[in-house]
Amino acid sequence: MGFxxxxxxxxxxxxxxxxxxxxxxxxxxIVICALAxxxxxxxxxxxxxxxxxxxxxxxxxxxxILVAISVIAINIDEVLSLVSDPGYMAMTLLTVVIAALxxxxxxxLVKLYWIESAISAGLGLADFGSSGDLAVLQASQRxxxxxxxxxxxxxxGGLVLVALSALAPYLL
Length: 172
Prior knowledge:
mainly alpha
């Protein structure tokens, strides 16, 4: 049942994305799921079946996806050259630490858990896109934050594209 509900929601979100291509299908999926959770009363067994499907996907498929994406997407020669550059490593480490600390502190100010704010906002900033989101959340055993990290990555990426598009004429 969880598989069929997830498939139906995914199909509806893709259809809406085709009708309104300004927004990605995942944005529609998250909005539909949030609205359904808020406004559509579901029996307990339906929620449990969706939760079981999520646990199955998280435990059975995500490690395989991470390995496949890593093998395909990572250029080992480039990684080795970057790791051997101490300046690059220091800047990367500093970026990740500062982003995690600031995100954790801001999350704490608005009454969120420090560690989950640091992981989802701070470490999600410095990862390798969607596969990086999966790797960060899998390593921190917080896969339940995947929807939030996915949408924040998309919103952040969109903001960066808009900002660079506006600044490009002045910088080039």
